[in-house]
Specification:
Layout (H helix, E strand, L loop, with lengths): L3 H26 L3 H5 L6 H9 L8 H15 L18 E2 L10 H5 L3 E2 L1 H10 L1 H8 L13 H13 L4 H64 L1
Antiparallel strand pairs: 1-2
Helix pairs in contact: 1-4, 4-8
Length: about 230
């Protein structure tokens, strides 16, 4: 018999992980303190840490694109057969408005998923195979899963986190810019030190000349005073 309780727990965990991912994307790509304050599962110290990185990638559209792509995957239809009835996640009680009610709450606007537990329980009880196909199925008969929500999310996120992927490319680009900036700073510091040495030498020479002139002036004054006394 299928383990329906484990299936439910896996779906709940999936929603939790998805919401945490969306929260991280929101925090890094937007400069709105309320985004952090709304996250009730964070401790005060964790909230403080999140506030420090708030909007860190505000001008980088990579994270915004990643969020949009994830939301598209969640909202898309997956027709795994001609007779498929359950083809979307919101049909099983998982969506941004699963709890019902009018208007939009901040969490819905941020893109977080909600669970209608009664609806989810009913679908797990009566349509477990359809739920499995919704998350992953073989569309061309080669015994390899090539479509579904889980497959699409895995493929999408892999493009970001794999070796040589989007994040690695961004990191390498930033590393290159940092090295270039460090080289420029080192070059400017060397030039500054050289200029400082030149100015010190010039002012030292000027000071020596002024001291010499002052000494000569004192000698002339002393000579003049001695003549006047005669």
């Amino acid at each position: 018999l299928p383990d329906k309780e484990s299936a439910k727990n896996a779906l709940i965990e999936f929603v939790g992980k998805y919401n945490q991912t969306i929260a991280e994307l929101n925090i890094l790509s937007q400069n709105k303190p309320e985004i952090v304050e709304e996250l009730e599962y964070l401790s005060p110290d964790e909230k403080e840490a999140k506030q420090k990185v708030l909007g860190m990638f505000l001008s980088d559209f990579s994270l915004t694109n990643a969020k949009n792509q994830l939301q598209n995957i969640i909202a898309s239809q997956y027709k795994y057969s001609e007779t498929a009835v359950i083809t979307m996640l919101d049909q099983i009680g998982i969506s941004t408005n699963a709890s019902g009610g009018g208007g939009y709450t901040p969490s819905r606007l941020r893109g977080y998923l909600e669970i209608d537990e009664k609806k989810l329980d009913a679908n797990i009880e009566n349509h477990l195979d359809e739920l499995k196909n919704l998350f992953g199925y073989d569309s061309d008969g080669d015994m390899i899963i090539d479509s579904g929500i889980a497959y699409s999310i895995d493929r999408q996120l892999t493009a970001y986190v794999q070796s040589g992927g989007i994040i690695a490319g961004k990191t390498n680009s930033l590393d290159g810019k940092i090295k270039t900036s460090e080289s420029k700073i080192a070059r400017l510091e060397t030039q500054l030190n050289q200029k400082e040495s030149e100015l010190r030498a010039k002012y030292g020479q000027m000071e020596s000349t002024l001291n010499s002139l002052e000494s000569q002036q004192n000698s002339i004054s002393n000579f003049s005073n001695s003549l006047n006394k005669k």
